[in-house]
């Protein structure tokens, strides 16, 4: 069972020392003597007037608004006054354009106030959505326990969500569920670790480490800081193009750097998300926020480290769209990394609308209002690659490639055998220089030798430099011009 720090203790753990300033307080008044006695006992026990502690503060020098639940006050239950306190905090954050941080700890709706308390969750949810739609960050740390209407409203609306180890997190607590249904929910189902494994929350984080995680997220989603980087080399300076089949084989080398390596070497304040947020995970896709060359961005891409045996499935594409939605809400540029042999070719993928998910992901990326850069880092197989392609700028590593199918698949269709894969790879013009000549990409990024020596680091440095250069150029363009150029570039391909 998770330990339970009270609200004041949690606040001291996460904010800058001496920076917390409470927002105006409110007290619940009632004519019910029994309820009044409960309220008075809760005040004496906790030193708080209500079940939430709200205030402005700073975290790592960044001004934020914080809401922390107090379970010792009537089980952290939310009545109409507590909901007004939460609402006040949310709207203060929105009005003053500040990130909102929430650490609920609650059994849900206050039963003493009945239905009127229950429907208070609507106004909180509305306010949180308005905050997000204003382009402002909302982070949630779920503490033990968080259940009921709190979880089903403002506890589940974070851009990123963490939870306390061992925390009970569920729609309805086990005691109430058993009383209503006559059945007990299996042990472990409503624990933070299970929810993280299922892609419902992003990480299990001890209270003592929340400050560091929130600090990284605040930094990675902050105002872009445009720094100076070297201009990438022009295509004319590159070495002679590699043979297409040799490029395909090179991208299948297990030692080849991938998305995780790029993030390690080129990104600061990197924070990865765990899943879609609605119970789906896909190890072949990664989404996170980071600063690349001082530019906060959302990183979305294929993770080659899981191996070719784990292609991208429908859940991976939904996870990618979570990243796109996050970027659009917070006004952050997107960097999409293409490095996949293709999409999952299974009955399950078909029945979960794989083709539709590819179409929706492609459409989302093509329609994003923020600057976008796509990078063909290695393999670019089929629809799973195409879904990540339609950006303002498209870059390709020297051995990267893009094709409707891996060459073996194309050979099987044309020749009824995979034996002609090398020749098909050349006929399809899938290599980097062919993609450049055909107007599909904007730049070929030369590759150093690897895996020997520090080739992986040099490779990632070259890719990171090119991404930063193009992001800088895109951030200087006005939105309408940039979107018009994006639409036109793909209309011109093949003409």
Tell me what you see in this structure.
The protein has 495 residues and is α/β, with parallel strands linked by helices. The chain has 2 domains: 214 residues, 2-enoyl-CoA Hydratase, Chain A, domain 1; 258 residues, 2-enoyl-CoA Hydratase, Chain A, domain 1 (Alpha-Beta Complex), CATH 3.90.226.10. The protein contains 20 helices and 16 strands. The longest helix is centred in the C-terminal third of the chain and has 21 residues. About 3% of the residues have low confidence.
Which labels suit this protein?
495 residues, alpha/beta, 2-enoyl-CoA Hydratase, Chain A, domain 1, 2 domains
Summarize the structure.
The chain contains 20 helices and 16 strands. It is an alpha/beta fold and 495 residues long.
Helices and strands, with pairings:
Blueprint: H1 7-14, E1 21-22, H2 33-46, E2 52-59, E3 62-69, H3 80-95, E4 100-103, H4 114-118, H5 120-133, E5 138-142, E6 146-147, H6 148-151, E7 160-163, E8 169-170, H7 174-181, H8 192-197, E9 203-204, H9 207-220, H10 244-251, H11 259-266, E10 267-272, E11 285-292, E12 295-302, H12 314-330, E13 334-340, H13 347-351, H14 354-367, E14 372-380, H15 382-386, E15 393-397, H16 407-415, H17 421-427, H18 432-437, E16 443-445, H19 455-475, H20 479-492
**What's the total helix number?**
20
Tertiary shape = elongated
Number of domains: 2
- Mean pLDDT across every amino acid position: 92
Structural class: alpha/beta
Binned strand content: 15-25%
Rg on CA atoms, Å: 25 Å
> Which architecture of the largest domain would the CATH scheme give at its second level?
Alpha-Beta Complex
Percent of residues in helices:
40-55%
Low-pLDDT segments, ≥5 res: 223-239
CATH topology of the largest domain: 2-enoyl-CoA Hydratase, Chain A, domain 1
Write down the CATH class of the largest domain.
Alpha Beta
What's the story with the biggest beta sheet?
Answer: 7 strands, mixed
The name of the CATH superfamily of the largest domain reads 2-enoyl-CoA Hydratase, Chain A, domain 1
What is the CA-CA span between the terminal residues?
Answer: 64 Å
Strands, total number = 16
Across the major sheet, the strand order is 1-2-3-4-5-7-9
